[in-house]
Design brief:
With 470 residues, this protein is mainly β. The chain contains 8 helices and 28 strands. It folds into 2 domains: 196 residues, Immunoglobulins (Immunoglobulin-like, Sandwich), CATH 2.60.40; 254 residues, no CATH class. β18 and β19 form a beta hairpin.
């Protein structure tokens, strides 16, 4: 299901740009060879208000500054640049030294002759990531200016970390702009404003992104199926007594290893404006260490944040069009990471994934009342994921939830768990979930059965569930 992305409503002071003359642009020195660690070309719209009918022309003689946002975060642009240079007669620039693994903003500025001979300063930017010792290319134009402004706004909002590779975030917004360009409604930008001012503009216009929010499931870009071929469940050693999930020791809470990785699936409900989030923490070998869930209010601009049901994790995220991304953190601060997910229900003619929000109840014979919530994901790669949690009460973390991963349901509608967690000491947990209505329908219902979960786990037994497709 595709929804048209939000339009970046920027207003271009084109009376100034219309009057920009090539003579006003001036010229730099002799042409340079693009063989440095970072090089590119600075371009501006060719004297017309409409990007859809204009071409880009080089901007010679512009001052180009390089800012390290990994080192200085959002304060980078107000700090001294790492290096400066000037574009040549072809609008080309180069820098000879970058730090591998760092994020940079390239900012180009030049004062030109505007309407009536009034000096007008142009400001452009571009985001770049240096991931190796090989040369990096980053052109600077009005589109890259919007991208760099968006990246900076996400860092400022703590939706992403300045130390993470932000290439996917940049690509995400670049894709949105490209769609606008292809539809003939390409965004324009007031190049007389600086990059910090574009961050303010982005904040004011992102309310348009509510138009792109749809009730849908977003599935992690990580291959869930890899867990079924290479992953196992790591039995957690848990000492946890408080009902709020806070513990003194918990090797299964995602805080014990620097190699831990968070995989996120989520559903967006635009009726209630809520994000239901499932976080599964694994190690580098796809072994499952822990799982938890979040129910977060989502703002009209697609951002959300909150604590997990058992208070072991916090999450921050942003949904824009077909993509979602953000950061997760262990409560102690010793574990954290970046996550990305894509709208699994965008129709392209292929088999799509589905996400359900579920309510779980125990069978009438159960001695423990259950009013659990959770998820059912059926993925296009042949994997099914079931997660249930009982919020509140005097339960430890491992007594309150169950996670099951297995092959997609067979012809009888039954999913058999190949991986089930948490596990009772010395036992192998098992589980089955049977759908009594066809997967993919607007609503679904079925039964569940789990065994060999830790002592006191409320899902040791059987019951039923209802599910609503998002």
């Amino acid at each position: 299901m595709y929804t048209k992305p939000f339009k970046l409503v920027f207003f271009l002071c084109l009376s100034s740009l219309l009057a920009i003359m090539l003579a006003g642009c001036g010229s730099g020195g002799t042409a340079i060879t693009k063989s440095a660690m970072l090089s590119g070309t600075v371009n501006v719209p060719a004297g017309t208000a409409t990007r859809a009918t204009s071409s880009e022309i080089p901007l010679p003689g512009a001052t180009v500054s390089l800012y390290d946002i990994t080192q200085n975060g959002t304060a980078a642009l107000s700090s001294a640049p790492v290096s400066t240079t000037t574009t040549d007669v072809n609008g080309d620039y180069q820098f000879s030294s970058l730090t591998t693994g760092h994020n940079y903003i390239v900012e180009a500025t030049k004062t030109v002759t505007g309407t009536g001979g009034v000096p007008t300063t142009l400001n452009l930017g571009s985001y770049v990531r240096d991931n190796s010792s090989t040369p990096v290319s980053a052109n600077v134009d009005s589109t890259s200016t919007l991208v760099s402004s968006y990246v900076l706004s996400q860092v400022a909002a703590n939706t992403v970390s300045s130390s993470e590779d932000l290439s996917a975030v940049a690509t995400q917004v670049q894709s949105q702009i490209t769609i606008e360009q292809n539809s003939g409604t390409a965004p324009t930008v007031d190049l007389t404003k600086n990059l910090e001012q574009h961050q303010t503009e982005l904040t004011s216009v992102e309310t348009e992104s509510q138009k792109t929010l749809v009730s849908a499931a977003y599935v992690s870009n990580d291959p869930w199926g890899a867990m079924l071929t290479g992953g196992t469940v790591q039995t957690a050693s848990v000492s946890q007594t408080a009902s709020n999930g806070q513990s003194s020791t918990d090797s299964g809470d995602g805080e014990s290893s620097s190699s831990e990785h968070g995989i996120v699936n989520l559903t967006i409900n635009t009726t209630t404006m809520e994000a239901n989030v499932l976080l599964v923490v694994t190690d580098s070998s796809n072994n499952i260490l822990d799982a938890d869930t979040f129910l977060c209010p989502i703002s009209s601009n697609g951002t959300f944040s909150g604590s997990s049901v058992d208070k072991l994790y916090t999450i921050q995220g942003s949904v824009m069009g077909e993509e979602a991304h953000g950061e997760w953190f262990a409560a102690s601060g010793s574990g954290a990471g970046h996550w990305e997910a894509a709208n699994s229900q965008s129709s392209d003619g292929s088999v799509q994934s589905s996400g359900y929000v579920c309510d779980f109840t125990a069978s009438s014979s159960s001695s423990v009342p259950i009013q659990g919530i959770g998820f059912l994901f059926t993925l296009s790669d042949g994997t099914s994921i079931v997660y249930a949690v009982q919020p509140g009460g005097n339960l430890s973390h491992t007594q309150s939830y169950v996670l099951m991963i297995g092959p997609a349901s067979n012809s009888s509608g039954t999913v058999t768990g190949q991986i089930v967690t948490p596990a009772a000491t010395g036992s192998t947990p098992s589980g089955t979930v049977t759908l009594t209505s066809k997967s993919g329908a607007t609503t679904a219902s079925g039964t569940w059965n789990f065994a060999n979960l830790p002592s006191g786990n409320v899902f040791n037994g059987s019951g039923s569930f209802t599910a609503t497709l998002l």
